[in-house]
Structure formats: C-alpha cells, structure tokens
Amino acid sequence: MDNKLKIIISGGGTGGHIFPAVSIANAVKTLRPDTDILFVGALGRMEMERVPQAGYDIVGLPVRGLIRPLWSPKNIGVLLDFMKSKRMVRRTIKDFKPDVAVGVGGYASAATLKAAHAMGIPCLIQEQNSYAGVTNKMLAAGADSICVAYDGMERFFPADKIIKTGNPVRQSLIDNGMSKEDARTALGLDPDKKTIVLVGGSLGARTINESVMQHLDMVKSADDTQFLLQTGKYYNADITERLKGRKPANLTVTDFIADMGTAYAAADLVVSRAGASSISEFCLIGKPVVLVPSPNVAEDHQTKNAMALVDRQAAIYVKDADAAATLLETALATVADSARLDTLSANIRQLALPDSAERIAREVIRLAERK
Fold first, then answer.
1. Distance (Å, rounded) from C-alpha 296 to C-alpha 310?
2. Residue 1 — very low, low, confident or very high, per pLDDT cuts 50/70/90?
3. Burial class (CB in 10 A: 0-12, 13-18, 19+), 76
4. 154: CB partners within 8 A, 6+ apart
5. Cross-strand partners of 199
6. CA nearest 133: which of 230, 265, 14, 261?
7. Looking at residue 280, what is its pLDDT?
8. What is the pLDDT of residue 211?
9. How many helices (H) and strands (E) does the chain have?
10. Which of 52, 84, 145, 164 is 20 to 30 A from 206 via CA?
11. What is the pLDDT of residues 96-116, one digit of tens each?
C-alpha cells in the first residue's frame, strides 16, 4: 500500500493568501517529506508566479470575482467561467487523487473545495480574518475542519469544526536575527537613524503612497528619521516620475521589498494595511505598527482586524479617509516616543500565536490519514 499523502491547496489573489498557503505546504513537507502537494489558483493572478517560485506545481483556473453591480450582464461570463473551472478542477482531482483539500481564500478556493467536497474528499479551510469572508462562510458546511486566528469565530462557523491555530507567516521573518543597525546597512539605509517602513501589501496602496507624496516637506524636515516606502509595482512608475528633482535624501522608494524580514528588522515603526497575514507577522515579531485598513475589501474586514489590536492598545489606527492629512504626522510622533513604541511592542507580542503553520499542517495530515 502506498502511504504517500497527496494534498491540494487552493487559493491566492494576494500575498495575504499565498504566503500562508505556501507556509502550510512547507510545514506539511517538514512533517511528511514524501507528501505530494498540488496548488490550484486563478489564471492571471499572483499565485501563478509565486507558487512555482516556492517550488510547487500549480494548476490555473479561469475563475474570477463577481462584477458589481451583481446584475451586470458581464457576470454571465463570470458564472460561465466558474462552471468551466469546476469541470476543470474535477478532472484535476480525478487525476491527482488528493487525500485532502485545503482552501485559504481567493477566487479558486470556492470552485476547488466545492468540487472536492462533492467528490468525498475531506476539506479544511483556513480563515485568516476576524470577520469571515463570503467564500469561507459558503464552504463551511462542507468543511471538516476550520482553522481560525481570532476568538469569536463561532459567529460564522459551526463551533465543533473550529480550531484556533493563528495565521501562518513567512518563516524568514521569524528567523531573521539581524540587529536594526545591520538590517539598515543591508538595505542601504543609515544605520543610526530612526526608521519608518511604509508598506501597502504586495500590491501597494495608493493611500499610503499619497500620505508620503503630499507631505514631502515633512519628510525632509524630519532629518533624524528615514523612510522606506514600498509603492507596489502598479504605482511605482508614477511615484518615481513625481519624485524627480525633489526626492528627500531620507526617503528610499522601491516597488517591492523582497526581503521583508530585513525591512521589518530595520524598522522602529511600520505603517501598513491591516491584512490578516501582515497583522500575524507583526504580532510574532513584536513590531510597533500604524494600521491603515483598506476600505476596498469585503465586509470591511481589515478595519475589524485592526480594531482587534487597537482595543488591546497593541496598534495605532488611522482611517483611510484621514490618512493623507494625518498619517505621516501620527507616524513621526509615534517613532519619536520611545515609551509608546515599547508599549506597542509588548502589547502586540502578547497576541502572537506561534507555530501556526505546523498546527494547521498537523490537522491537514490528520484529515488525510483519516480518509
């Protein structure tokens, strides 16, 4: 009898879905090195590039999100693509013969786990946010296990299926042991200056970019502080053009930070969106953070994620609509207050759930072996 496990992991769209999915896959391989893992993602989305870079095979589906308003005739094509994706993923399941299917959110996750459940494959879903997404709420009835990162998730899911595991994070962030000075030097920054790192997630954030661009005079006058801004690839060309001839010497701009572990190690303070994966990372490394939740997400879940920290004095919250006016001033006032930074660091570290990927991997393996 062949005891090799076969696992399908589905989801993606943003780094917030892809990084946890890869972390789960890596944890499974650590526990069971002979496991075969196949990813299922959405054609044209970030996972089609990032997953192969992590060393895993991926199948792409022509699935995409519904267009608003929901009665738009364009949604006929969306629904036809969803039906095509379900047929494709059924063939993939028949060929690959997985022992378990894992969904981490994203367009492909719904088609994959619905098909897997219908074909008798045990299913696990991982809900990263404090407010459950529509896809995972829809998939919950067919799931055997639901891994979550926040308390109170029985509001959305059957209590007997919930396992509080936390969110998997990139191991490189935890393993990075660099001092602030060494990390700054590695990034080409001044090792002795206070450092604010501003990131808008893997895709960038216009609001965070504009909060800097509209206050370049404030950046320049803060000569004891330096800024590292990740613009996102979509916004980088415009930002670079607008900075020609007037970029402050203490501002470093890049489209994408490949080594976030070093960037976070360099930072006294991080300014970020409030995606679930990012928040889990800040908790584990104890990093003071100003959160600017994106308003362009389902059920405003990023604000709910942020307030779960703010209510415990573990982060600072700036509303997206207020960010252009107040974000930079708030960040500079915070980074200048050493006692406030120490308090934020201590409080956010208390919310950390370590070893999340391994906890989820053990549950995945348990389901697979139960089949």
1. 20
2. very low
3. exposed
4. 162
5. 230, 272
6. 14
7. 92
8. 97
9. 16, 13
10. 52
11. 999 999 999 888 999 999 999
